Amino acid sequence: QVQLVESGGGLVQAGGSLRLSCAASGRLFSVNAMGWYRQAAGKQRELVAAITSGGSTNYADSVKGRFIISRDNAKNTVYLQMNSLKPEDTAVYYCNAVTLIGNDYWGQGTQVTVSS
Fold first, then answer.
1. pLDDT given at position 71
2. Confidence band (pLDDT; 50, 70, 90) for 30?
3. Does position 29 have pLDDT exceeding 80, yes or no?
4. Can you tell me the mean pLDDT for 11-32?
5. Cα 19 to Cα 9: distance, rounded to the nearest angstrom
6. Which residues, including other chains, have CB under 8 Å from residue 13's CB and lie 6 or more apart?
7. How far, in whole angstroms, is CA 21 from its chain's centroid?
């Protein structure tokens, strides 16, 4: 089992920045990749950014150049630095971990609201 706890969401004006954190605990040796997803009201959950255990990253086109995903292995924490935020970034953001055998784990989600 892997437990994920997100923090760092909130209300910010357009053009502002926020940093999300995801603290992981449990069977961390089994985690292959971690990522951030988001789900806006009335829309499907979508991948925002992901990072593998080797440090390779992947971003949604809509956030490239604005968001940065990183990880601190010593703290078992993954971060999402979000810059130049837009109202369309408003969503609940979820942390995700995928194990080597393909099991998915999710955090409880954190709300990000960007006002225009």
1. 92
2. confident
3. no
4. 92
5. 7
6. 114, 115
7. 8
101: left (phi over 0), alpha (psi -120 to 50) or beta: alpha
Q: What is the dihedral of CA 4, 61, 40, 14, to 10 degrees?
A: 100
* Sign of the dihedral defined by the CA atoms of residues 45, 96, 48, 93, in that order: positive
Question: Which residue is associated with the tokens 């225009």?
Answer: 116
Say if CB 78 and CB 24 are below 8 A apart: yes
Instruction: Tokens for 54, please give them.
Output: 């080797």
Give tens-digit pLDDT for 68-88.
999 998 888 999 999 999 999
Spatial distance between the Cα atoms of 22 and 31, rounded to a whole number of angstroms: 14
